[in-house]
Design a protein that fits this description.
It holds the Pfam family BPL_LplA_LipB. By secondary structure, this protein is α+β, with helices and mostly antiparallel strands. Helices cover about 35% and strands about 30% of the residues. The structure holds biotin.
Length: about 325
């Protein structure tokens, strides 16, 4: 984690985006010497932040490399709560495991865990999740909502909406959501979401939302068997993206929709979810633990479950399944 003073410097540059801040201004604001400021600016440079220093004018941040350390994420972060506590590690077994440990140690809502590499990345339905080193986002987000477990799956749909909207803002691409929580571009998967809850039957204590996004992979990064089903933002747009920037926008979108959800419930989120949904109105197959349901996806309930109408006109409510077209 960055030191308190460095965090304050980062915050001042975030508030004064694209402006020069003089050594004197920073030293007055933070109550430390100009030499100390100079040392912190050097540290930022060593961390890969491009700093321009102009004599008698001051310092300006002119660029960042594609890294996801807490400094990279905090510099430009515009949220109140989400991402204000960041745990960054180069290599972990799974960011979900670290986040669950932090939950036990009272980490506040909005804490995120980010890693470059996962040795045991977890996917839905007990699958593995592969995180391409240096090219993807692997992040877990800690929530502490006062909601009943019944409505918790809505948080997965909300997360999908926040990520879809962030991808749209950063790349200009309109992604699709495949129920419940895959994000697709041109029918290929670009992001997966894994929601894990802690609590009992009546009350949720915490939720850890795992987010895996393929950002800067190129086609040769995918084995042949995956190239038809997986893609990255870079492949789709033909240019690389700064992962820290995407994380900042995801956190801002998430914070916005989460506040709406806690205040007004799922309905406003449901409308947004439907605007990104790929499966609605289509013939689909839902494979659940106990059965296969084939029919037309006709919508989601106000609680977020998928409704499928089979050829006999019977409507099935799906709580958890793998969907194929
Ligand atoms: C899926 O589509 O099956 C969900 C994939 C979720 C992957 C993310 S990456 C960050 C977090 N840590 C994990 O081990 N899994 C989630």
């Amino acid at each position: 984690m960055a030191s308190k003073v460095k965090e304050q410097i980062i915050q001042l540059f975030t508030e004064n985006h694209d402006r020069y801040l003089s050594g004197q201004y920073l030293s007055d604001k933070l109550g430390i010497s100009r030499t100390a400021i100079w040392k912190y600016m050097k540290e930022l440079q060593e961390e890969g932040i491009e700093v321009e220093a102009v004599r008698k004018v001051g310092y300006k941040i002119i660029g960042k490399s594609d890294r996801m350390t807490s400094t990279d994420i905090q510099l430009g972060l515009e949220t109140k709560k989400f991402g204000r506590q960041i745990v960054y590690q180069e290599e972990v077994n799974s960011t979900q495991i670290i986040a669950s440990e932090l939950v036990m140690n009272d980490a506040p809502e909005g804490t995120i865990v980010v890693a470059e590499r996962q040795l045991k990345g977890r996917g839905r339905l007990q699958r593995n999740w592969v995180t391409s080193d240096g090219k993807a986002i692997a992040m877990s987000l800690i929530l502490r909502p006062s909601i009943s477990p019944r409505v918790a799956p809505q948080l997965t749909l909300l997360t999908a909406v926040a990520i879809a909207s962030a991808i749209e803002k950063v790349t200009g691409i309109h992604p699709n959501i495949k129920w419940p929580n895959d994000l697709l571009i041109n029918k290929k998967k670009v992001c997966g979401i894994l929601t894990e809850m802690q609590g009992d039957a009546d009350c949720i204590k915490s939720v850890v939302i795992g987010i895996g996004i393929n950002v800067n992979q190129v086609e040769s990064d995918y084995p042949l068997e995956l190239s038809d089903i997986a893609t990255s933002l870079r492949i789709e747009k033909g240019q690389p993206f700064l992962r820290a920037k995407l994380i900042q926008v995801i956190l801002a979108e998430f914070e916005k929709y989460y506040e709406i959800f806690l205040e007004k419930g799922f309905k406003p989120i449901k409308i947004l979810w439907e605007s990104y949904a790929i499966s609605l109105g289509k013939q689909i197959k839902a494979t659940t633990l106990t059965e296969e349901v084939i029919g037309q996806a006709i919508g989601i309930t106000d609680e977020g479950q998928l409704l499928i109408e089979d050829p006999a006109g019977i409507v099935h409510t799906i709580y958890s399944a793998d969907i194929s077209f």
